[in-house]
Write a structure and sequence with these properties.
Length: 359
């Protein structure tokens, strides 16, 4: 039996807004699951329903097989880390971390032992006597995490905990959160709109859009086996390229270009006259002509040299695309180039449903 189970969870507000639709998920003990999606997709609302901070309109939430819909936040043995640090400014780091245990009346010797252990895990040992204002943003977020993990609860919920940090601090904190998870072995549900955070931290990812789950899977599955255009375009940086065209006599056209889809789809005849979406990732291309690959000729609009690679912005037919190439192979702007996409790296989606078509 799964440790956490969400069965057909819905959230409908009094004004009729349906924020979450039939959310289903089973989470194993010790798993790190990330909810990811654009702002307003329902991921934070789902997290708050798990925490007991929002009522569940319909559906059932189980903890270790026991219904928890009616339980309050404390009864669920869940700790939450919010986007804001929510530290007490007049308290030292030590007192902020110890606050929950102090309220529970835990013996001071036990509190000291546990605070020191948490501080060691989080690299805060030298900062226990400082006030929050004397800390960096990353250090304050570690204190907030410490206050959560010291309680030794079964589940940790994190709602965009890194969004207030700069880019360098986010990279450092991603590593530290991963290390904390390995050390504590706690079941963790993490909400973010940043697909890089999701890919680097998660055992499994739940991709959401407009209150609906689009796909659930490992980072590998979401990257290499996306089920629809939204997931394929959301996961990956730069995102997957999409060229749209209608099928005519087994080929798909982009402007003056025609590609033989029979190389990718066995029964191409059933798609005659229909619009399909031809997808490929920027890093899966090869410059020039190659065997067992589609060849595309396009015009270079812009190049971005990023060090080890270059992003090349091109126009193919009426669509724009991004190619990732070795920096030494950076093409000139306003020039035509040819690149190849191996057949196995091409994705075909239905133009109407936007679901992937498996060849």
């Amino acid at each position: 039996m799964a440790y956490l189970t969400l069965k057909n969870i819905n959230k409908i507000y009094p004004n009729g807004f349906h924020a979450v639709h039939n959310f289903n998920l089973e989470i194993e003990k010790g798993e790190f699951v990330v909810f990811v999606g654009p702002s307003g997709c329902g991921k934070s609302t789902t997290l708050r329903m798990i925490a007991g901070l929002e009522d569940i309109s319909n559906g059932e939430f189980l903890i270790n097989g026991e219904r928890a819909n009616e339980k309050g936040p404390r009864e669920r043995e869940i700790a939450m880390v919010f986007q804001s640090y929510a530290l007490y400014p007049q308290m030292t780091v030590y007192d902020n971390i110890a606050f929950g245990l102090t309220l529970q009346g835990v013996d001071e010797d036990i509190i000291e032992q546990r605070v020191n252990n948490v501080a060691r895990i989080l690299g805060l040992t030298d900062y226990l006597d400082r006030l929050p204002r004397a800390l960096s943003g990353g250090q304050r977020q570690r204190v907030a995490i410490g206050r959560a993990i010291i309680r030794k609860v079964g589940v940790f919920l994190m709602d965009e905990p890194l969004s207030n940090l700069d880019a360098k601090q986010r990279v450092t904190m991603r590593y530290e959160i991963a290390q904390i998870h390995r050390e504590t072995g706690a079941t963790t549900i993490y909400v973010t709109h940043d697909q890089t955070e999701a890919m680097t931290l998660a055992d499994r990812i739940v991709v959401m859009k407009d209150g609906y789950v689009q796909q659930t899977g490992t980072p590998y599955q979401l990257y290499f086996e996306p089920e629809n255009v939204f997931v394929a375009g959301f996961i990956g940086e730069p995102p997957m390229n999409f060229l749209r065209g209608k099928v005519r006599n087994g080929t798909i056209s982009f402007g003056e270009m025609e590609l033989d889809l029979g190389k990718k789809l066995k029964d191409i005849g059933q798609y005659e006259g229909k619009e399909l979406v031809f997808g490929f990732r920027p890093e899966h291309i090869q410059l020039g002509s190659h065997e067992n690959a589609y060849e595309v000729t396009c015009n270079v609009e812009l190049t971005e040299m990023l060090g080890d690679n270059t992003n090349v912005y091109v126009v193919a037919g009426k669509d724009h695309a991004i190619l990732k190439v070795d920096s030494h192979d950076t093409p000139e702007t306003d020039k035509d180039i040819t690149f190849s996409i191996p057949y196995e790296n091409v994705y075909i989606f239905d133009g109407e449903t936007e679901k992937v078509i498996k060849g």
